[in-house]
Amino acid sequence: MCRLRQFIVLFALLGVLSFSVGCPEVGFYGSTPQSFSGTDSMTLTTPRADILDVVAEVGKSMGYDVTSLDKNSQTISLGFSEHPGMALLIGKVNYSSLSVSVQDGGKKLAFSYSIMGNLGSGDQEAAEKLVTDFKTKITERLSAT
Questions:
Q1: Taking the model in full, what pTM does it have?
Q2: Distance from C-alpha of 62 to C-alpha of 93, rounded to nearest angstrom
Q3: 33-144 belongs to CATH 3.20.20.70
Q4: Would residue 101 be called left, alpha or beta, if left means φ above 0 and alpha means ψ between -120 and 50 degrees?
């Protein structure tokens, strides 16, 4: 039993070590993280008093958590982080944040976004897809009510 315990500890340490140094022999653990940040905006056809609630609802439906909310400045921030187990099991790292600011008396939503990840989840294409999907869902949600 002692040998089995030593083997498990050694295996776990080697896994953590190979993840932390990005060991290419492990394959996907060798994927270098990328990051991308940008800004975007969208114009609303009709200003909405509940737009921050709509943004929070859409963000939650996409797997995001509300990380900050400032009703005075009409700003909300959303964040997503891949479960830590994914990093340990397959080496996938993914974090994204999206801040939305209501401008021009509620006629415009300004987006500031940042994404970081590996295995294709942290590049410009992934970031632009995130914003495009978010804008589409906001439009769908607003047209449904």
A1: 0.72
A2: 18
A3: no
A4: beta
